Amino acid sequence: ERDMSKKVKPSRSFIQNLFLGKAMTEEVFPYPINITQEQIETLELLIPPTERFFTEINDPVKNEDNESVDEKTLKAMGELGAFGMQVPEEYGGAALNNTQYA
Question: What φ, ψ does residue 12 adopt, rounded to 5°?
Answer without folding.
Answer: -95, 5
